[in-house]
Amino acid sequence: MSKRHCILQGAPLDSGKRRRGCLMGPDAFRTAGLAEALEDLGHSVTDRGNITPRPFTETIQTNLHRLAETIAWTEALADSTEAALRNGLPITMGGDHALAAGTVLGAMRHATRQNRPLFVLWLDAHSDFHTLDSTDSGNLHGTPVGYFTGRGAFDGWPALPAPVPYENIAMIGLRSVDPAERAALQDTAITRVDMREIDETGIARPLGVFLDKVAAAGGMLHVSLDVDFLDPAVAPAVGTTVPGGATVREGHLVMEMLHDSGLMTSLDLVELNPFLDNRGQTALLMVELAASGLGRNVFDRPTRAY
Prior knowledge:
Layout: E1 5-11, H1 25-31, H2 34-40, E2 44-50, H3 67-85, E3 89-94, H4 100-114, E4 118-123, H5 144-148, E5 169-174, H6 179-186, E6 191-194, H7 195-201, H8 204-217, E7 220-226, H9 248-261, E8 264-270, H10 281-293
C-alpha cells in the first residue's frame, strides 16, 4: 500500500442550511480519531486546523439563506484545497455540503494546472444540482453540483476555470431528488445510481465502471461523502435523514474500491451534525470509512462497543 500525506482541514461551515450543528463536525472527526486512524495505516498526517471564511457582509436575501457567507467559505476553501493538493491528499472535515463548492473549485484549479481532467464521485442521498434560481428552500447545500458544473447563474461566486463536465460525475446513493433537479438531470450525462439500482445490481458494478473511466482518462478524483449516503439507522447524525440508504457493508465496499483503484486525490466528509449523534456513532463510522478509503481492510477493524 502506498503511503500518502493526508492534509486535514476543518470546515465548520454551517451556512448551507437552516438546521444548525454542522459547525461542530470538524472537532467531532478529530475526537473520533481520524488522524490517528490514518497514522495507524502508515500515512503521514498534517492537521491544518479550521479554515475561516473570507471577510463578508451578509445582505438580506428574500429567498437564499446566508448567501454572502457561503460565497466567502467557497473562496477560502478553494484556496486551501488547491494549496493542499500541491503537497498531498486534502481531507476536508465538514461542515455542510455547501463546502463542496469550494473544495471542488480548488481541485478544479489544481487539475487545470496539471492538465488533467477532474472527476467527482458524489456519495449522497441528494443530487445537490439546484441553481440559485431553482432552489425552493434557499438552502445552498443543495447547489454545489449546480455551481461547479457551470449550470445557471451564480453571480458573485468565484469564476470556474473549467466547469466539471457532466460525464465526469457519478452520483451514487440517490433517493431524494427534487422534481426540478430530476428534470434537469435527465438532460445530462451524469452517472446517476439510485438505491433501486443498487438493490437490483449491487453497488460495485456502477462504481467499477466509473473508476475505470477515471483511470482511462488519467483523471484526478474528488470524492464527496455525505453522511446521508448511509442509512440513518447506522448514521443518525445528519439533518437530512432519508431512510433506505447504504449499509455499513456497502459504504466500506465503496471506500475499499476507491483505495484499490489508487485514484482518489481529495476527499470531503460532510453533513456530520454531532448534536444529532448517538454517543459518537456516526462520527466513528465516518472515520472508519475514511480509513477504508486509505487502506484499512476488514481484518484491521476492531469490534467496537458504542
